[in-house]
């Protein structure tokens, strides 16, 4: 995911987590807040509940790749924080991809047609 699509400052992440609406799944949690600009930025958080540094980095890379794949289908005007949960470390990539896609769809940020 390119740098301009990442939410990197801790103050911005805290603001989104405080004021945003959350969409939960056993593997990930998505917190979404509207942005004033016509852009979309995403932060990915993996806490110690996911595992050690190696596992956290692997999940972070997977989630970043999934978001990068979904980026062209996303509607602009939001900031999101994607938080990995503990069971996501044991999930297959395809399952994680389906979960992230469905959570973004539930939040109304993408429209994915079946097929």
TrEMBL record:
Classification lineage: Bacteria, Bacillati, Chloroflexota, Anaerolineae, Anaerolineales
A GO CC annotation given for this chain: ribonuclease P complex
EC number: 3.1.26.5
Recorded family membership: Belongs to the RnpA family.
Keywords: Endonuclease, Hydrolase, Nuclease, RNA-binding, tRNA processing
Function: RNaseP catalyzes the removal of the 5'-leader sequence from pre-tRNA to produce the mature 5'-terminus. It can also cleave other RNA substrates such as 4.5S RNA. The protein component plays an auxiliary but essential role in vivo by binding to the 5'-leader sequence and broadening the substrate specificity of the ribozyme.
Residue stretches in coiled coil: none
SUPFAM superfamilies, sorted: Ribosomal protein S5 domain 2-like (SSF54211)
Stored InterPro entries: Ribosomal_Su5_D2-typ_SF (IPR020568), Ribsml_uS5_D2-typ_fold_subgr (IPR014721), RNase_P (IPR000100), RNase_P_CS (IPR020539)
Protein name: Ribonuclease P protein component
GO biological process: tRNA 5'-leader removal
Any Pfam family the entry gives: Ribonuclease_P
Gene3D superfamilies reported in the protein's UniProt record: 3.30.230.10
Reaction catalysed by this enzyme: Endonucleolytic cleavage of RNA, removing 5'-extranucleotides from tRNA precursor
UniProt superkingdom: Bacteria
Molecular function GO labels: 3'-tRNA processing endoribonuclease activity; ribonuclease P activity; tRNA binding
Subunit structure: Consists of a catalytic RNA component (M1 or rnpB) and a protein subunit.
